[in-house]
Amino acid sequence: MSGLLKKLPIKLAKKSPTKVADNTRSPVAKPSTTLKPISNQFTKLLSVTKYLPASARSSILSKAFGKVVPYVGTTGVYYETVEPNQVVVSLNNSKTVQNHIGSIHAVAITLLAETATGFILGLNLPSDRVLLIKSYSVNFYRPINKGQVAAIASLSDEQRLDILNTPKGEMVIPCVIDDRDSDSERAPIVVEMTWAWIPKSELEARRQGKASKKSAEVDLDNDSGPKTE
After folding, report:
1. How many whole angstroms separate alpha carbon 28 and alpha carbon 73?
2. The pLDDT of residue 12
């Protein structure tokens, strides 16, 4: 995300924001909070855009975060709410994300859940740490309707403090899937996303260790043949 704040493109604001469904009442109340946001590259971006109109802000965040995670940026994920205590992302039912019955594909919905939970963790993680998805489960209980789907990830103040004060840990990030065109009270999908975080220095050390080991193996292979004077 280095340099992203300097690259907030003016032309992003010229893009028409993705249409958000009219019935966007969240099935999950935003947790109350008394905590101030921590300072990292994600929260700095939020601070830069907080005075923009909601639609323009959401559009810019969608494009900017798409640059952070390039694959997510290709899928049309739209960031509706991005706060340290709740992240709401949605996906319109377009042809490119449909399954064989015309609703949003299961993999795309899983991506929504991973995006919401990953970004809410990122908003609460000190900049000297890195987040990694550890495991997830996705259980389908009824078909999704042919409309927009949203993923809502939330964190309490207690959970946020736990993330802040634990240099290396893991957590199941609560996430709800909202089938916005459905009147059913039954959740269509139940997801469980387990994220881990470790110090960046540890990740770098692991990578260097593997690189050193691989280099040593190559050297040994080169030395294994017969030598002549």
Report:
1. 25
2. 41
Computed over every residue of the chain, the mean pLDDT equals 83
Position 103: which residue type?
A: S
User: Please, are residues 194 and 137 in contact by the beta-carbon 8 Å criterion?
Assistant: no
Name the helix (H) or strand (E) containing 41.
Answer: helix 41-49
Top pLDDT among 117 and 207 is at 117
Report residue 92: phi and psi, to 5°. -75, 150
Length of the chain as a residue count? 229
- Let me know if 180 is exposed, middle or buried by CB neighbors in 10 A (0-12, 13-18, 19+): buried
Radius of gyration of the CA atoms of the chain, in A: 21
SS3 164: helix
pTM score above 0.85:
no
Q: CA–CA distance from 30 to each of 45, 49, 86, 92, 222 (Å)?
A: 21, 20, 6, 22, 60
| Residue 204 main-chain phi, psi, to 5 deg | -65, -40
Walk me through the domains of the chain, giving residue ranges and CATH numbers: 8-199 (3.10.129.10)
Tokens of 64: 């900017």
Report residue 80: phi and psi, to 5°. Answer: -90, -50
8 A C-beta contact, residue 97 and residue 76: yes
Maximum separation of any 2 CA atoms in the chain, in Å: 83
Query: If DSSP codes are grouped into helix, strand and coil, which group holds residue 225?
Result: coil
The pLDDT of residue 47 is above 80? yes
Instruction: Compute the C-alpha angle 9/12/15, nearest 5°.
Output: 165
